[in-house]
């Protein structure tokens, strides 16, 4: 199931400057995460953006969870 969801997240250099997007629809993962973090529910997002599906929102959350699974974070010298 997780692998099927992650297939919804696409990377194409010509779409949104190569940022991870939902199914190539020009909805960057970060945009959907911002909507969710602002307090919007999945249902509200789906009403406002009718070409998105509930599985897309699940895929975004799974993608973000996978990105956060790092062993350690190192400060880069400025």
In N-to-C order, the SSE pattern is HEEHHH
Low-pLDDT runs of 5+ residues are: none
Calculate Rg over CA atoms. 14 Å
State the helicity in percent bands: 40-55%
The share of residues in extended strands comes to 5-15%
* Total beta-strand segments: 2
* Shape label: globular
- Number of helical stretches of at least 4 residues: 4
Domain count: the total is 1
Query: Main β-sheet, in a few words?
Result: 2 strands, antiparallel
CATH topology: Arc Repressor Mutant, subunit A
Helices and strands, with pairings:
Blueprint lengths: L1 H5 L2 E2 L10 E2 L6 H9 L4 H7 L5 H14 L11
What does this structure look like?
It is a single chain. The protein has one domain (2-67): Winged helix-like DNA-binding domain superfamily/Winged helix DNA-binding domain (Arc Repressor Mutant, subunit A), CATH 1.10.10.10. Strands 1-2 form a two-stranded antiparallel sheet. It has helices spanning 2-6, 29-37, 42-48, 54-67, and strands at residues 9-10, 21-22. By secondary structure, the protein is mainly alpha-helical. Helix content is 45%, strand content 5%. Pfam families: DUF433.
Quick rundown:
With 78 residues, this protein is mainly alpha-helical.
Quick tags:
2 strands, 78 residues, Arc Repressor Mutant, subunit A, mainly alpha, 5% strand
